[in-house]
């Protein structure tokens, strides 16, 4: 077991419960606060009672290949991964965990190739909803594992639905997040900005004020094309006056030529043309883009709340505040967010050591919330974590983010988690192209509609 301080263990088992994350399903009803107090306490007790005991029961040498997306040693997630793996190997000398760490886009591409050749590693990373569907045939159902020792009950209500099909759960998420705007208070002050923007016009004006002071307004790693899409979808959430645009397209109620979509493309282009992003954003990957903000070289980073721990531990941590994405042309509710059910851990159906792999993953998911809490990286956890975050030393930034979770009314999930892969790829390429050249918003809409019509 991972060694924890007495203080941390006491906090994790306190009766006062603060739940991370709000509605996992994008519903207007925040029902994650219902009947969850006991589950949160059990996340560190019942589920861990027998976790990981079976894998060490014999002397058989076992190697488990663990593909993951935590490549950056500076991040709390990397430290969490290695701490848990190291402890497990110490407790189970016959088990070797081979880690293969890469960034998100690299892993997605590699998994596609591995699935086609039936060489999926013992543990891999998958994404929710539409992105999960192509891999169901090569993944092992995890029902037996999550039903044992109460592990299933440690997850936020409804969250596992994104990783399930036909009554089976195929993956366990590392988080459940919302998209927010992190900002450097010192750089805002240097540009004469006295308060975070609440409207898109104010947001655009702040971008121009920052540029006038030779400050990069927004850090963006658009080489990993999902990042620009994540931002764009927040704009669409506003111009559509609420969630459900892509669902309406899928249901035949709207098309991509709808005014709300064209308005969102126009607003996105306005940001790009105002030089909101660093030069050459499409040649900069996600981790590098994030580090531009974390080293004080950009004023904002628009990203999921999984970044809170890394921002806190960075050079600019004490200077960083957070605000909700503003309304656009008077439309949208700032308490509706882009929702991000996290990347998730799945087990290969063809694993040579299937039971040992499940035993390890059970241990990993039991220890992860405790280690994340200890590393002050629990904001956006997919599992219920109890405790007094202020007493545990969580920053004001983390506490402010937690308040946003509590006010969350719902929202949308990412484009590539909603649409078929071919449509999603056309979308990602189309948005990425906007960073390279000025486009006709109507033509972008038509491009999206053509991809949808060809692949629906």
Automatic annotation (TrEMBL):
Keyword Coiled coil (UniProt): no
Domain of life: Bacteria
Keyword Lipoprotein: yes
Signal peptide region: 1-24
Pfam family of the protein (one): SBP_bac_1
Keyword annotations of the record: Cell membrane, Lipoprotein, Membrane, Palmitate, Signal
Name used for this protein in its record: Extracellular solute-binding protein
Native source organism of the sequence: Paenibacillus sacheonensis
């Amino acid at each position: 077991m991972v060694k924890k301080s007495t203080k941390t263990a006491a906090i994790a088992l306190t009766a006062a419960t603060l739940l991370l994350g709000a509605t996992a399903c994008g519903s207007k009803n925040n029902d994650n606060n219902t009947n969850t107090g006991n589950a949160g306490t059990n996340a560190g007790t019942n589920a861990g009672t027998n976790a990981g005991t079976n894998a060490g029961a014999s002397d058989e040498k076992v190697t488990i290949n663990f593909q993951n997306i935590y490549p950056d040693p500076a991040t709390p997630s990397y430290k969490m991964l290695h701490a848990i793996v190291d402890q497990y190997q110490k407790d189970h000398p016959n088990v070797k965990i081979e880690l293969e760490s890469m960034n998100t886009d690299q892993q997605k591409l590699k998994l596609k190739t591995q699935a086609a050749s039936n060489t999926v590693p013992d543990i891999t990373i998958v994404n929710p909803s539409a992105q999960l569907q192509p891999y169901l045939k090569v993944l092992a159902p995890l029902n037996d594992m999550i039903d044992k020792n109460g592990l299933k009950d440690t997850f936020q209500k409804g969250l596992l639905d994104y990783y399930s099909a036909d009554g089976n759960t195929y993956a366990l998420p590392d988080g459940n997040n919302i998209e927010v705007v992190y900002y450097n208070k010192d750089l805002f002050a240097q540009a004469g900005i006295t308060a975070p923007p609440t409207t898109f016009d104010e947001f655009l004006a702040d971008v121009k004020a920052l540029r006038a002071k030779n400050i990069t307004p927004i850090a963006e790693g658009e080489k990993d094309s999902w990042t620009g899409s994540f931002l764009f979808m927040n704009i669409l959430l506003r111009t559509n006056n609420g969630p459900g645009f892509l669902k309406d397209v899928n249901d035949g109620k709207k098309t991509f030529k709808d005014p709300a979509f064209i308005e969102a493309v126009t607003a996105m282009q306005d940001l790009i043309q105002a030089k909101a992003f660093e030069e050459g954003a499409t040649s900069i990957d996600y981790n590098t883009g994030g580090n531009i903000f974390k080293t004080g070289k950009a004023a904002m980073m628009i990203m999921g709340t999984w970044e809170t721990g890394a921002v806190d531990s960075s050079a600019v941590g004490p200077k960083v505040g957070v605000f909700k994405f503003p309304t656009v042309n008077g439309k949208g509710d700032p308490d509706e967010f882009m929702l991000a059910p996290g990347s998730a851990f799945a087990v290969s159906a063809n694993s040579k050591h299937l039971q040992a792999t499940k035993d390890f993953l059970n241990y990993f998911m039991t220890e992860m919330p405790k280690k994340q809490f200890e590393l002050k990286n629990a904001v956006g956890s997919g599992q219920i974590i109890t405790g007094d975050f202020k007493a545990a030393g969580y920053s004001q930034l983390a506490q402010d983010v937690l308040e946003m979770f509590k006010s969350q009314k719902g929202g949308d999930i990412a484009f590539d988690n909603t649409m078929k892969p071919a449509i999603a790829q056309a979308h990602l390429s189309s948005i990425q192209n906007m960073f390279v050249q000025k486009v006709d918003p109507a033509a972008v809409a038509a491009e999206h509609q053509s991809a949808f019509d060809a692949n629906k």
